[in-house]
């Protein structure tokens, strides 16, 4: 009687292993096909995205070269006069502004960061003034490979630069950039005495 129960027990479980193996094989083939379709959709989507023209937010916009500077009014006059001046002249009117002609960027490079959407700029700033400077503002202009302008990004650096010295700023994030940006040129806009 024991022999007969063993045969019944084994018969019941004998087909289970084959069914499980077949189910695993079907699931793995199905998963593999799904993964291939997902990969194909991602590749096609990225290809279409690269062919689209840049959005209006990333298009080339001209810089406004004039700022309105508020001049102090005479004691008897209540009207405030505003005169347009260029960006290079605006910091010179402030008593704490540094001389930009003795402050320059001696070398600069840039690379992409943040999955290719952010610009990281490395540059060396030379200070030939007789005083330290801080709050250095830079503007980086990004262009396409053909030289057409894309966008400008600015950044204020709070780190001081000692007098008659140079300081290297490494991998400074200046902002999000267009995917078509190929070249960057950074320049100084303003600085303050430390």
What do you see in this structure?
With 194 residues, the chain is α+β, with helices and mostly antiparallel strands. It has helices at residues 2-51, 90-93, and strands at residues 66-71, 81-86, 103-113, 118-127, 133-143, 149-157, 165-176, 183-193. The chain folds into 2 domains: 1-52; 95-193, Immunoglobulin-like, CATH 2.60.40. The strands form 3 sheets. It has a 3-stranded antiparallel beta sheet with strand order 3-4-7, with no helix packed on it. Strand 3 and strand 4 (118-127) form a beta hairpin. The longest helix has 50 residues, at 2-51. Mean pLDDT is 74; it is low at 56-73 and 77-93.
SSE layout:
Elements: H1 2-51, E1 66-71, E2 81-86, H2 90-93, E3 103-113, E4 118-127, E5 133-143, E6 149-157, E7 165-176, E8 183-193
Antiparallel strand pairs: 1-2, 3-4, 4-7, 5-6, 5-8
Keywords: Membrane, Transmembrane, Transmembrane helix
Transmembrane segments: 34-52
Protein name: DUF3426 domain-containing protein
